[in-house]
Amino acid sequence: MNNRALSVRSLSKRFGDTLAVDQVSVDIEPGSFVGIIGRSGAGKSTLLRMINRLNEPTQGEIIFGGEVITGLKGAQLNQWRRRCAMIFQQFNLVGRLDVLTNVLMGRLTSIPTWRSLLTIWRDADKLEALDVLDRFGMADFAAQRCDQLSGGQQQRVAICRALVQQPEIILADEPIASLIQVSKQPTFRRNPF
Asked: Which of 24, 49, 77, 100 could, after both became Cys, cross-link 142 (CB 3.0–4.6 A)?
């Protein structure tokens, strides 16, 4: 197993009498792209939130690079969350703030607290955020409020925020659901033959 691998061992989560995740074990090598497939309510989001430590597992452990992540607290836990970015299903953007500021929020754990409270961003951070926005076709929207964007545009901003965080792992909860538009009405084509 590589020293930057992610190991999930017998991970379970209960919410009262409901078993949301049951004994999940998996080893994921660096550079892997892994999808979790299951019906709605199967525990996919809960599993991702446990890996990021937004939800505490009922049992089991998470190990990354030989470090037991399930034992982290305080500053070490915050550092893990910086290293393990989360793209949320509901985006978690601040609607009244502009796109650039929302993307820069991915840098909050990398700057001193006083700068984060005053939202003072270095030019290098702004340039990096604009570069990532540009790669996703969103640079022209940098000054626009997030609550004025379409769902797909908001999804791209959320992805940019995760990338600016410079994580070692990205957990994405339905990361492209709003980027794909599906017609509610079926389209029929007449066979020309």
From this structure: 100
